[in-house]
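Morning!

This is the sequence you dropped in the shared folder:
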Amino acid sequence: MISGGDLRPGVKVELDGSPFIVTDFQWVKPGKGGAFMRTKLKNMKTGAIIDRTFRTEEKLQKAEVEDRKVQFLYHDGDVYHFMDTESFDQFTMDEKQLGEASGFLKEEMIISVMSHRGEPIGVVLPTFVELRVTETEPGFRGDTTSGGSKPATLETGATIQVPLFINIGDLLRVDTRTGAYVERA
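The structure's back. Tokens below.
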């Protein structure tokens, strides 16, 4: 059990049978009455964000979310296939469940999958991934009208903004949290 006063970003709680993660909180101490927490909670299954207020002495159920290592095998349309690295069981997730993470999944990549009561609900990617550029326009020296960047399509199909000197075939390090170019690998 977690008390309402212990809610911080990243804490996972269960409300109405669904797992939620705290994304934002505000401690409020009114002049009269007890203190309470205003929170923003993200549903880990649907991605919906709700606002909820909890008294500091209120007890909440900790979400039963477990992480396990899996290997990404391949994708077939909107269906992504994974294999548990310990039991070798295979399972699928659709693009809606993966969200933006689907743009950074490379075949044979080892990632963590979060599951709630045995059902996969999301993935945790490494902070940085190395991906090859498959399509981009040539950059011209002195062309800074667009802020010195151009769009580039990566081998996974994701499109990110890169500096003008990046060419087709370059291997890039990309931050999976923001989807931003970091450096050439």
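Headline: The first strand starts at residue 2 and ends at 3.

More detail when I'm at my desk.
O.
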